[in-house]
Amino acid sequence: QSVLTQPPSASGTPGQRVTISCSGSSSNMGSNNVDWYQHLPGTAPRLLIHTNNYRPSGVPERFSGSKSGTSASLAISGLQSGDEADYYCAAWDDSLNGYVFGTGTKVTAL
Amino acid sequence: EVQLVQSGAEVKKPGESLKISCKGSGYSFTSYWIAWVRQTPGKGLEWMGTIYPRGSVTEYNPSFHGHVTMSVDTSIDTAYLQWTSLEASDTAIYFCARPYYDRAKDGFDVWGPGTMVTVSA
């Protein structure tokens, strides 16, 4: 049972903006940075956002992250069919003394 | 090029032992933590633990502590994940990953391709 909660699914038509929420607590997102990953099962996850809102080189500007208190969100602007994947938020948890992934959100381009 | 190369797929029986590997290249292996992440269809991604090659400092997810052991061999820039007695529930894909910065709590920007482990009688 993850301590970071995400909606199980999100969808939009190509070109639309899709937002995924992530809810945590004071011991994880409230006191540590949030990361976001894109994952196609069976392949290695891809870091999309680190340190709340920074994109590693190579990640399109269409992906953006934000954090406020114990909640965070990932926005995908101009949704493309290639964006269909599972998306996970993640953060270090000081109480568990470990890194925790969210429950995951499956994004579908309608 | 910074990369992590993992050992190949394994098929084992319950009760057997297993050690899978993750070799780093293109960076200073001893300067970055290496984490292990499990992927299962029902539970998504789970952080199993992390090890700092210099000194073999470890942090384990309590859910995995005592069931797996992380280790490193700095002479060959390789990290290992080991089981002494596998269970069917260990069937999963196991990824090693390196953090973006040199702290245990940072996100992972370098990942191995994964090792598929199947445990079946």
- Roughly what is the average pLDDT of chain B, rounded to an integer? 96
Class per helix and strand makeup of chain A: mainly beta
Biggest sheet record of chain A: 6 strands, mixed
Number of strands of chain A: 9
Order of helices and strands of chain A: EEEEEEEEE
Helix-and-strand structural type of chain B: mainly beta
Helix content of chain B: under 10%
- Span of the ends, CA to CA of chain A: 29 Å
Largest interface: A-B, 28 and 28 residues
Helix amount of chain A: under 10%
Q: Tell me the β content of chain B.
A: over 45%
Radius of gyration of chain B, in angstroms, nearest whole number: 14 Å
Low-confidence stretches of chain B: none
- Please write the string of helix (H) and strand (E) elements of chain B: EEEEEEEEEEE
Globular, elongated, flat, extended or rod-shaped: what is the shape of chain A? globular
Question: Total strand count of chain B, please?
Answer: 11
Residue stretches of chain A low in confidence (pLDDT < 50, at least 5 long) are none
Main sheet record of chain B: 7 strands, mixed
